[in-house]
Each structure stands twice: as structure tokens, then as C-alpha cells.
Design brief:
A hairpin with a 3-residue loop joins strand 3 and strand 4. With 205 residues, this protein is an alpha+beta fold. The chain has a single domain, classed as Cathepsin B, Chain A (Alpha-Beta Complex), CATH 3.90.70.10. The chain is globular. It is 37% helix and 16% strand.
Length: 205
């Protein structure tokens, strides 16, 4: 299985509508907004889209203070429940590349958000980290093939401000991405939206 030119065209068409994060620590609520908007358009549930300010409020996000991660699945489920959806998160032994691809391939679910170790920024070629990166970072995964992961990084505006970087990273070697996803924090944490009558977690087990 490879990432084809068609995959890249679909990716570029989709992410051209995505909202980049506007604060250095706003990746998670921004990623949520983007997967909501993409799912809403794909399923015809236009009312499911939310503004970034509304998502920030839902996540209790404050610049410099991050989000209250523990409240988000329940709070977001309340917002999308009328459309037949719920928010789900999984980590550890419940998640691997095969299960991640199952989420991506399922036409009823959102794209998955995954959490990467802070060392991700140190590994972006030519990007100079100011100080030591301490917070984990979230990106949206589009496809996993035999040797690479295709993903969207909402940090793109910050990368593009660097004179050393010509293009925001959107593919990563599969082995290295798995190590970043596994990280030293919550191992292989993943977040997505799925229909309420469908439980991918129960299918995984």
C-alpha cells in the first residue's frame, strides 16, 4: 500500500480548507475544529461545524494554559449527539497502525487526531526550537502506508515563519512516527468521532 498521487491530491484539497492554529499551544482545539468541519461536510451535517472560538470554549482552552483534556470527550459528545455522533479516545494497547487505518478507512468516522511526543519539533528538519519543547503536539492523520504516514500539522503557520523551512512537514517515516506517537506521555493516544451506534473500540478487542 502506497501513498498515491490521488491520495496527495485529496489531502491537499481537504487541508486547503483547514484552519491553522493561531497560538503556539492551540493545536488540540484547532485539530478538533478541523475534523469536525471535514466530517460535517462529508456527511452533510453542516450544523455540526463549530467556530474555533466555540471549540476553544468547549475545551476550556486558554493561551499558555492549554486545554482541560479530561472534559473534552464528554463535552464534545454533547455537541454532536443530535447528529448521531460521539467523541472517542483510546491509547496504549487499544491503538496501533492497523486500528488507526481502520478509523481512517471507515466512511462514517472522522479523521483521527493523534498525540506526538514533544521531541517531534526537534526532529523537524531545519526547524529551530526556542528552548526545550515540553508539551505534546496533536496532528491529524490521513493515511498510513508501508513506510510513511500522511498527516496534517496545524502548526503550519509557525513553521512557515521560519526562514529555514520551505514546506510544513506532512509525511513522516512510519517507524519514527510510531515512536513519536508512543512517546513518553500517553502511549499512542488517539481521538476521533464515530456514530453512536458504532463502537470501533469494541471491534478492536
Amino acid at each position: 500500500m502506497t501513498i498515491t498521487e490521488s491520495d496527495k491530491e485529496t489531502y491537499q484539497s481537504t487541508v486547503s480548507e483547514f484552519q491553522p492554529q493561531i497560538t503556539a499551544d492551540g493545536c488540540y482545539p484547532t485539530a478538533i475544529k478541523n475534523i469536525l468541519d471535514e466530517l460535517a461536510e462529508r456527511t452533510g451535517h453542516d450544523g455540526m461545524s463549530m467556530s474555533l472560538s466555540d471549540v476553544n470554549s468547549l475545551c476550556n482552552y486558554r493561551e499558555g494554559l492549554y486545554t482541560e483534556e479530561e472534559i473534552i470527550p464528554e463535552a464534545l459528545t454533547r455537541e454532536v449527539s443530535d447528529y448521531g455522533y460521539r467523541a472517542v479516545e483510546a491509547s496504549g494497547s487499544d491503538m496501533d497502525y492497523e486500528r488507526l487505518q481502520q478509523i481512517i478507512d471507515n466512511g462514517s468516522t472522522s479523521l483521527p487526531i493523534v498525540e506526538l511526543d514533544p521531541s517531534y519539533f526537534e526532529q523537524v528538519e531545519n526547524y529551530r526550537v526556542q528552548g526545550e519543547a515540553e508539551a505534546t503536539h496533536t496532528v491529524i492523520v490521513f493515511k498510513v502506508n508501508d513506510d510513511k504516514v500522511l498527516y496534517y500539522d496545524p502548526y503550519e503557520n509557525f513553521f512557515e515563519r521560519s526562514s529555514r523551512i520551505d514546506e510544513t512537514p506532512y509525511t513522516w517515516p512510519k517507524t519514527g512516527f510510531y515512536e513519536l506517537w508512543s512517546g513518553d506521555r500517553e502511549e499512542r493516544w488517539t481521538f476521533w468521532l464515530e456514530p453512536k451506534d458504532q463502537s470501533l473500540l469494541s471491534q478492536f478487542q
